[in-house]
Amino acid sequence: xxxxxxxxxxxxxxxxxxxxxxxxxxxxxxxxxxxxxxxxxxxxxxxxxxxxxxxxxxxxxxxxxxxxxxxxxxxxxxxxxxxxxxxxxxxxxxxxxxxxxxxxxxxxxxxxxxxxxxxxxxxxxxxxxxxxxxxxxxxxxxxxxxxxxxxxxxxxxxxxxxxxxxxxxxxxxxxxxxxxxxxxxxxxxxxxxxxxxxxxxxxxxxxxxxxxxxxxxxxxxxxxxxxxxxxxxxxxxxxxxxxxxxxxxxxxxxxxxxxxxxxxxxxxxxxxxxxxxxxxxxxxxxxxxxxxxxxxxxxxxxxxxxxxxxxxxxxxxxxxxxxxxxxxxxxxxxxxxxxxxxxxxxxxxxxxxxxxxxxxxxxxxxxxxxxxxxxxxxxxxxxxxxxxxxxxxxxxxxxxxxxxxxxxxxxxxxxxxxxxxxxxxxxxxxxxxxxxxxxxxxxxxxxxxxxxxxxxxxxxxxxxxxxxxx
Length: 470
Hints:
Layout: E1 9-11, E2 14-15, H1 20-26, H2 31-48, E3 51-53, E4 62-64, E5 67-74, H3 76-100, H4 105-108, H5 114-118, E6 140-148, E7 152-159, H6 166-179, H7 183-186, H8 195-205, E8 216-219, H9 228-238, E9 241-243, E10 248-251, E11 254-257, E12 264-266, E13 268-271, H10 294-299, E14 304-306, H11 323-331, E15 338-339, E16 343-344, H12 348-356, E17 361-365, E18 374-376, H13 382-394, E19 399-403, E20 409-414, E21 417-426, E22 428-431, E23 435-436, E24 442-445, E25 461-467
Helix pairs in contact: 3-11
């Protein structure tokens, strides 16, 4: 047996209970039918424009994210544990962000070192003392979950700035229902199609005080952004305008959208633009993507930004090791979901351990994302490891290290047929007047044999995620 948890097979001879009906169905499908369905899926995704821009890729600026037709199935009991843990974690993270921009009790208590917050590249002193509606900063959180060992779930990463991928979760489900409608008659699968309605309700619930019928927009950097499809998709699904910075302006301490009928007041901006580019008067003066004066309106409480400015300080990898302590500090609860054990290379003892064990560890930049700037020790050459050692020695506080987890695997269609491939899961948690989430998420799959890197920018694919309702 492999040394990783297999989502579908308990051992070589038996299928896990929640996969048995699917296995029975799969065993009756002729290979030519499956191939035809896979080709149809690729054709439809390309026609609809479900592509992902890959920066610096000489082969072109866009490509299709591979879609696999074998779903990842999660039993109701497992999901209940995951959901409880995710709600708990996101509540604590929102309390942490509010605290560091106000009373800073967690710093005074010595739970999180001050320098880890106030010297963090994502800390925004402009947010100090600013009140936001319902004290919510991370309105949309995409939390990356992995499964390792005997099947235990771990949180790998908290994405709180501009988490992406929910459009692929929704489109993967639509595709499976289109290709294999008979499967949905056999399983009681929790729906995910109502996510855009939940998102809109959530955004409306955090409108500025006194606004009863808020106008919501999605703000995009533009069509050349890697996640532009998602920006347009979510705006269309919510029935709101997709805008760029040039479509908005500030006047009389309010934000307006230019329309053919004249200016229209905007109350909530679901922004898919990083902090630095939001307002050239407050952050990067060379930004042509933002809205001059936006921060002053935001500070006055006359527009809501989702997610809030300064939220990124809580999803930095240097803060990640402290989240279990945050949960205990703010909620007086033990964490339901565990972190992956993490070595902070800014600490001499942790740095030495990391240097001594580079071939066995995964080392990540604390500000990194997308699978870039990292070392996967077991998959690296001696030369790559030694080169990374020099980077680590030059700037140890810029890295964390973790054991190389044997991520769980799910059967996946590859060129050679069906074979196990490693996966993770990104559920999306919405915080407003309440904390809510659909029963599902984006399952990402590392398509290369033995690879543990599931990011779309690194060649990963996606699967539909089925959460069973009973």
